[in-house]
Design goal:
By secondary structure, the chain is α+β, with helices and mostly antiparallel strands. Helix content is 27%, strand content 17%. Helix 14 (421-436) links the parallel strand 15 and strand 16.
Length: 574
């Protein structure tokens, strides 16, 4: 299941989030059992799952609501640890474990990259004994070609960070009409070199994205590659029944010795398509027959979470993330009154985060948030600049409003909300807190596409909006730059607070260019604090995701980031 979509190409070409926001909203639909967050057993998050010895054999079924799987890496936004990672390897990938920040690790490459002194040139060497499913050795030319085809207009839709980072990427149109991209060099079969426009410390994370999977040019058919990819991972696609199922079987050309992140436990994996999330949860709760060897790719719906709480067997098989996407209230800093930092800080204290949490499913729906960087991201610092009860501090909010000199009754604040019931309930929870402090708020419902247009285009005809965000890779870069860099205001960007601060822009630029991971982490943490001091957004909750698996499924866990199961490790007891 796709966990997150591109919101920005970091440096230049912003795109839209809303599909990812919709994914996060699924996690926010978990309904509380009572006004205080529900019965403890029903709402307290379970463990992230566990790991152990991998037993080989059996057929594992993944029950998914998706009606198709697009295996073309150029068109995919799939996480490194989920579906496509079973079939297609990349230069690097994610090393993720329960309770630990994710780290970038080698996949097809021998390391995570060697960088030049100026931070603009990255060199990778391929491992020995890496092959496509037909036994052909994987070369640097195959990876270069796979990346180049992602630039083709015919193959749009995939993660696209690399397109604005590589020299010449803005003008390149792909190999079908534009020849090759000179900023990707392959001096020999084992070496691939990338020349970037400017220093970019997170490049090792970029080359873990789908477009960096190898594609043999001789077998590239854009009409069929979506269903018939050439496998480089432990499994190959052997059967597709349109809208019904996709079956994977072992790729005997893959070697375990060359791969430190995939355990390839099951002999075969079947994706059962078009499965209703409620029905899936009911089947997994019952845990009968082949469903003992299955897990759900969709979040467990609220009614079934209540069932699980009263079913000891199912409760043992429910895995809930520690955290997920950040849900936040964006404050349009360009609007009259809201351009005053004390007014925005008053909103920090006025918002009733507990009410928002209840509207989002209580403790199971998410933990209260105070920072912008997602838990599970390396370098994150935990702090709270606006200490208050979970329900807010109305007196402090009123005090700041008085000091600001702005009269909150002078005009109504427009809270733009999507028009589904969950979004409106959340908006009402925010509205009630603000009105206690003296603000006047009007909720303006809009359909999803219209809301996206209003928020990311035009001149910002709104005061407040609730959104959510999950980075596309485990770096604080993905939390900060797309939401708060001034280059991301309007024109499809996702700086919904329309926040512009030269000092923050400079911090973002420094952190982006920093190659040293620890130094970059410190800069991103500094940016997090600097932004929160200006109060362009109110962090609300870090959403939580819950998944169920059958009793024979082993090594099923959710890492600290992202809040989705690691498909590459799951196996079956024999």
């Amino acid at each position: 299941m796709n966990a997150s979509r591109p919101r920005s190409t970091r440096a230049a070409r912003p795109t839209l989030l809303k599909a990812a926001a919709a994914t996060a909203v699924l996690a926010l639909t978990l309904t509380a059992c009572n006004a205080n967050g529900g019965d403890d057993d029903a709402t307290a998050p379970s463990t992230q799952g566990s790991t152990g010895t991998t037993e080989k054999g059996g057929t594992m079924t993944i029950l998914t609501s998706a009606t198709e799987i697009n295996w073309d890496p150029a068109k995919s936004q799939n996480l490194a640890i989920t579906t496509l990672g079973l079939v297609e390897r990349r230069l690097t990938t994610w090393g993720v474990e329960p309770g630990k920040p994710g780290v970038v690790v080698p996949d097809l490459a021998t390391d995570t990259g060697t960088v030049s002194d100026d931070g603009k040139t990255w060199t990778y060497t391929l491992k020995d004994d890496i092959f496509f499913e037909d036994g052909t050795p994987i070369t640097s030319a195959d990876i270069k070609y796979g990346i180049e085809r992602s630039f083709a207009p015919e193959l749009s839709g995939g993660l696209s960070y690399h397109k604005s980072l590589l020299e010449g990427g803005d003008e390149y149109a792909g190999p079908y009409t534009g020849g090759d991209l000179p900023s990707i060099e392959t001096p020999d079969d084992k070496t691939i070199i990338f020349r970037l426009k400017s220093a970019y410390g997170d490049w090792p994370w970029i080359v873990s994205q789908p477009a960096f999977a190898p594609v043999p040019e001789a077998q590239d058919d854009i009409a069929t590659y979506t269903q018939q990819p050439v496998a480089s991972g432990p499994y190959k696609v052997v059967d597709t029944k349109q809208g019904v199922s996709v079956t994977l079987e072992r790729n005997d050309k893959w070697t375990e010795e060359s791969d430190d992140v995939r355990t390839a436990g099951p002999d075969s994996i079947v994706f059962s398509l078009g499965q209703d999330a409620t029905v899936t949860a009911q089947r997994l709760i019952a845990d009968a027959g082949d469903d003992k060897n299955a897990f759900g790719a969709s979040f467990v719906p609220p009614a079934q979470l209540a069932q699980v709480a009263n079913n000891p067997s199912a409760k043992e098989r429910l895995v809930t993330s520690d955290a997920g996407a950040l849900a936040y209230l964006a404050i349009n800093t360009e609007r009259e009154g809201l351009d005053n930092v004390q007014v925005r800080q008053a909103i920090q204290y006025a918002v009733d985060k507990q009410a928002f949490q209840v509207a989002s499913g209580g403790e199971t729906g998410g933990a209260l948030a105070t920072t912008l960087i997602t838990p599970g991201i390396e370098g994150r610092e935990d702090f709270n600049l606006y200490e208050a009860d979970a329900a807010g501090d109305v007196d402090k909010a009123k005090e700041l409003l008085t000091e600001s000199g702005w009269d909150p009754t002078s005009r109504e604040l427009v809270l733009l909300s999507e028009d589904d019931s969950v979004s409106l309930s959340q908006a009402q929870a925010v509205e009630q807190g603000l009105e206690r402090a003296g603000f006047q708020v009007t909720i303006k419902p809009e359909a999803q596409l219209a809301a996206v247009q209003t928020l990311t285009q035009g001149t910002g005809e709104y005061d407040l909006t609730i959104s959510s965000w999950q980075p596309d890779f485990p770096s604080a870069n993905g939390n900060i730059q797309p939401l708060f860099d001034s280059s991301q205001i309007g024109n499809g960007g996702y700086n919904l607070a329309r926040f512009s601060d030269p000092a923050v822009d400079e911090l973002i630029a420094q952190a982006t260019a920093e190659i040293d991971v620890e130094k970059a982490g410190a800069l991103w943490a500094q940016a997090d604090r600097a932004i929160m001091e200006q109060s362009p957004v109110v962090p609300l909750i870090y959403t939580r995701n819950s998944f169920l698996h059958g009793s024979n499924v082993q090594n099923f866990y959710i890492p600290a980031f992202p809040a989705y199961p690691n498909y590459l490790k799951a196996s079956l007891s024999q």
